[in-house]
Amino acid sequence: MSTTTKRNTPEYELVDNGIETIRYLEHGYPSDLIRWHAHDDYELHFIVATSGKVFVGDYIGNYSPGQLILTGPRLPHNWICQHNQDPVQVRDMVIRFDHESFSNGMKIIPELAEVLPMLLRAKSGIEFFDLELDDLKKTFESVRDSSGLQRVIKALPLLKRLAQSQNYRLLSTVQIDLKSNEALQRKINTVVDYVSQNYNQDISLSNAANLINMSDSHFSRFFRKATGNRFIEFVNRVRISRACNLLTETDQQIANICFQVGFNNVANFNRRFHELKGVTPRDFRSQSNKRLEGQTLTAH
């Protein structure tokens, strides 16, 4: 296998660069690295271009430039761009490190234990807020442009700052430990892409199972173990996430949004929305409008 292939594939990069405490990678769009996957590293993802859907464990939400997320070992994740976006050279800047480096380092430098609570939370995925984006980008660039001890010195202050931050949220409601091989991860990625692109259509478990040549019963068990969701729950999460966008960004009637995102029954849409968001679609829109009005007043 060529050196280039190893460098571009997370699973191989971990093996090749294992002697480094802090590793760095970046990729643009499109890229072979944009896929549902998991590995043994922690990854701090800084999104600098494009927008779309982010998947972390059983969490599904929106992403846009400026998002910062820390994922833990074996926690599956992916960022899927919205359709018709122009190619970019750099979409995702990533700082990577493994647990062993920090656990061993703590024996020599006890102060490293300050980041441990954050690393434990990273099993669920962590999204950080209210960071100075220009400074953040400069930090990632300095990590990228350095190596060895200098790279560690550049990265540690950022990790300390994030470990002390109180402005974050945990993403996945279940801590998934995906140990499947690359072939099985590709199967999940095929299904995730299929749902993301066809959420507004009639999607059945059988159709999804056929995509990856599995029986319905085998696929049902396989998908839940890999994603933390039953298949229909996953489809509903994608649909509700899209509905949230439409409720916030348009003034379409709620019934129209219901059908546009793939539900065929308004009562069922309202019920599923409340299960996932804790409020009705109408209240969600009202709260979103109030937040936007507050931001506008603050800006003036």
* Count of individual helical segments: 13
Low-confidence runs of at least 5 consecutive residues: 1-18, 295-300
Distance between the termini: 57 Å
Q: What would you call the structural class?
A: alpha+beta
- Strand adjacency order, main sheet: 1-7-2-5-8-9
Mean pLDDT over all positions: 86
- How much beta, percentage-wise? 15-25%
Largest sheet: 6 strands, antiparallel
Helix fraction, binned, reads 40-55%
**How many strand units?**
9
Shape: globular
Please tell me how large the radius of gyration is.
20 Å
- Helix and strand element order: HHEEEEEEEHHEHHEHHHHHHH
Keywords: DNA-binding, Transcription, Transcription regulation
Protein name: AraC family transcriptional regulator
InterPro entries: AraC-bd, Homeodomain-like_sf, HTH-like, HTH_AraC, RmlC-like_jellyroll
Domain HTH araC/xylS-type: 189-287
